[in-house]
Design goal:
Number of helices of chain A: 0
Helix content of chain A: under 10%
Distance between the termini of chain A: 41 Å
Shape of chain A: globular
Oligomer: heterodimer
Helix content of chain B: under 10%
Radius of gyration of chain B: 13 Å
Number of helices of chain B: 0
Distance between the termini of chain B: 32 Å
Chain lengths: 112, 113
């Protein structure tokens, strides 16, 4: 089967660092995406990992371990505007066809 | 961000109504998608179109009928829906249908009474 797990909710303080974990089990793994979704808005692309290791983009970094089926999104110097849901999504390839599988999302609350 | 637009943004309909959701992308992409987002559930992929051809239908009930007249426009025709179909319906597009970054529209919030 296929499954993606991430925490439902997290709370952190402005200026702090928070790590949002995502574990997955799927055959035909191709890559892993992180999206940010503010309440009532569209999900927006944050990062993409296909190889093991860390991808850094400003205050946000994403890590992938293919062998462990594990990824995390690291947010540094948290700001109030970072309060949003963070969606982990895996793409899998089957006979040349690609499919996106999303997790339920982690709702992050940043407190002053 | 106006790369992918959706109309209407909100829709209330009765179970006997027929309505359509519209999506338009201005990014020159070749693939378009319909997703359903319900509270506390993962995004559910409904349909995938690549170069105006439907390449995936994820066991979606026939009361949902997609239409892709060209690579920039995607419709979702709704008829005889059920209350459990109430959700946020998101449209997305990507350059090609190959596991690439998807760009989402703001969604249509649908309430079925």
């Amino acid at each position: 089967g296929q499954n993606i797990d991430q925490p439902t909710e997290m709370t952190a303080t402005e200026g702090a660092i928070v790590q949002i974990n995502c574990t997955y089990q799927t055959s035909g793994f191709n890559g892993l995406f992180w999206y940010q979704q503010h309440a009532g808005e569209a999900p927006t692309f944050l990062s993409y990992n296909v190889l093991d290791g860390l991808e850094e983009k400003g205050r946000f970094s994403s890590f992938l371990s293919r062998s462990k089926g594990y990824s995390y999104l690291l947010l540094k110097e948290l700001q109030m505007k970072d309060s949003a849901s963070y969606l982990c999504a895996v793409t899998k390839e089957t006979s040349g066809t690609y499919k996106y599988i999303f997790g339920t999302g982690t709702r992050l609350k940043v407190l002053a | 961000e106006t790369g992918v637009t959706q109309t209407p943004r909100h829709l209330v309909m009765g179970m006997t109504n027929k309505k359509s959701l519209k999506c338009e992308q201005h990014l020159g992409h070749n693939a378009m998608y319909w997703y359903k987002q319900s509270a506390k559930k993962p995004l559910e992929l409904m349909f995938v179109y690549s170069l105006e051809e439907r390449v995936e239908n994820n066991s979606v009930p026939s009361r949902f009928s997609p239409e892709c007249p060209n690579s920039s426009h995607l419709f979702l025709h709704l008829h005889t829906l059920q209350p459990e179909d109430s959700a946020l319906y998101l449209c997305a597009s990507s350059q090609d249908e190959g596991g690439e970054t998807q760009y989402f529209g703001p969604g249509t919030r649908l309430l079925v009474l």
